Backbone:
């Protein structure tokens, strides 16, 4: 009887650990692999400027990340949130403009067994120095 | 006795043939507009000019002689009646130029005279040729220099100004060299012309777009045609688009018609992420009725582009780098 109970507990624990691992792997894959194209396609071109600056548009980044995370993460958890912080690349000060050169996404999710998943992602526009 | 008679006779003869002219008092001043360019065998025209003299002269008359410039055979001459000219009086002179009968590819040599008594106080000649209206494929025909003969002229008091076309394509690129795939920058295309203002009737730029990526433009035989202008201030001639465009700042979708949300721009943009479709595409610029000779100039160039504006870090001016922690 005891052996049966121990076996059952082991089975439940195994399933739980499997479930947690599945959640962590799934969420991690989605978060870490956040498509670069989300950020590339959030750039509004300043067509009137002689030498336009290439910057992320806050509104577009927020909209696209919201769509992406809501759709992709719903398979794994509903219990997540994230903060988006736009900053200036030169001094990492907060960017208060509509268009900014860098963004930090702090991602949090509470999983099985109250496991806290946290990731911080940074994306920056990089000038390759070709003079454009 | 014989010697003094001989000297006297020579003096009388010299005086009769070539009366001394006081150049200061003649002070000839001619004003006229430009004559030409003319087409071969075109209808007859009138050449008119005005002149004045610095002193009263009687027995003044004007003459125009027209020659074959090759054989120097005189075709005809027109001599006006003698008349008096008051000091600084403006005299108008008109000659009929019989182009229909004499003006062919050999050209015409025209000589203008003003006589005072029997002495010429103005003698200028000019040779002009008919315009050679033709279509010039600048690159296909490897044309580096396109220089015409004199096709127009203007009489001056001391000289005759002649006008002709001289196009220099030596430094004209046969490609549009764009550093990054973005806007269609025409700055790298230019040519030289021998005058600051070049006349032309129209200019168009056609972009080959068989995949119809430029969705807001009408396509004819797979190409989009846009009106352009020649930047006509200096001897270096460049191009610019005639009309403004409306551009979507997100995907650089361009239109000539207003679309809500699109911003006004003077530049034409290629849509993002379509570099492969436009790399090496043919761009054709056609300028019609250029210069005095009304040449049609056709420039067919390739759109050469090296990098994307935004994309992978190896092939773009800008890239997005990300890291996770």
Residues:
């Amino acid at each position: 009887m005891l052996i049966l109970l121990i076996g059952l507990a082991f089975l439940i624990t195994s399933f739980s650990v499997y479930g947690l691992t599945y959640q962590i792997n799934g969420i991690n894959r989605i978060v870490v692999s956040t498509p670069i194209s989300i950020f590339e396609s959030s750039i509004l071109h300043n067509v009137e400027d002689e030498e336009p600056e290439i910057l992320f548009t806050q509104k577009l980044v927020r909209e696209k990340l919201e769509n992406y995370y809501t759709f992709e993460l719903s398979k794994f958890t509903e219990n997540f949130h994230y903060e988006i912080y736009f900053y200036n690349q030169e001094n990492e000060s907060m960017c208060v403009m509509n268009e900014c050169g860098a963004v930090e996404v702090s991602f949090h999710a509470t999983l099985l067994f109250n496991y806290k998943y946290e990731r911080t992602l940074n994306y920056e526009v990089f000038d390759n120095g070709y003079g454009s | 006795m014989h010697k003094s008679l001989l000297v006297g006779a020579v003096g009388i003869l010299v005086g009769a043939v070539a009366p001394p002219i006081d150049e200061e008092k003649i002070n000839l001043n001619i004003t006229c507009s430009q004559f030409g360019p003319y087409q071969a065998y075109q209808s007859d025209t009138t050449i008119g000019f005005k002149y004045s003299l610095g002193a009263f002269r009687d027995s003044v008359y004007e003459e125009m002689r027209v020659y074959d410039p090759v054989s120097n055979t005189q075709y005809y001459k027109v001599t006006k009646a003698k008349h008096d000219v008051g000091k600084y009086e403006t005299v108008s002179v008109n000659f009929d130029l019989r182009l229909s009968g004499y003006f062919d590819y050999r050209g015409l040599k025209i000589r203008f005279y003003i006589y005072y008594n029997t002495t010429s106080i103005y003698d200028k000649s000019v040779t002009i040729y008919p315009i050679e209206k033709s279509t010039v494929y600048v690159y296909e025909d490897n044309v580096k220099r396109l220089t015409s003969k004199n096709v127009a002229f203007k009489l001056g008091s001391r000289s005759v100004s002649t006008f002709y076309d001289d196009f220099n394509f030596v430094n004209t690129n046969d490609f549009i060299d764009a550093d990054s795939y973005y806007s269609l920058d025409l700055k790298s295309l230019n040519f030289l012309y021998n005058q600051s203002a070049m006349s032309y009737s129209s200019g168009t730029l056609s972009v080959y777009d068989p995949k119809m990526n430029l969705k807001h433009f009408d396509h004819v035989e797979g190409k989009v045609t846009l009106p352009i202008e020649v930047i006509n201030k200096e001897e270096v001639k460049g191009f610019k688009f005639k009309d403004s465009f409306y551009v979507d700042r997100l995907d650089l979708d361009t239109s000539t018609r207003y679309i809500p949300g699109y911003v006004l721009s003077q530049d034409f943009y290629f849509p993002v992420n379509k570099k492969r479709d436009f790399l090496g595409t043919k761009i054709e610029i056609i300028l019609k009725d250029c210069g005095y000779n009304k040449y049609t100039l056709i420039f067919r160039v390739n759109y050469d582009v090296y990098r994307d504006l935004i994309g992978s870090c190896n092939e773009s001016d800008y890239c997005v780098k990300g890291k996770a922690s």
Summary: Chain A has a mean pLDDT of 86. Strands of chain A lie at 56-57, 80-87, 99-100, 102-110, 116-127. The longest helix of chain A spans residues 2-32.
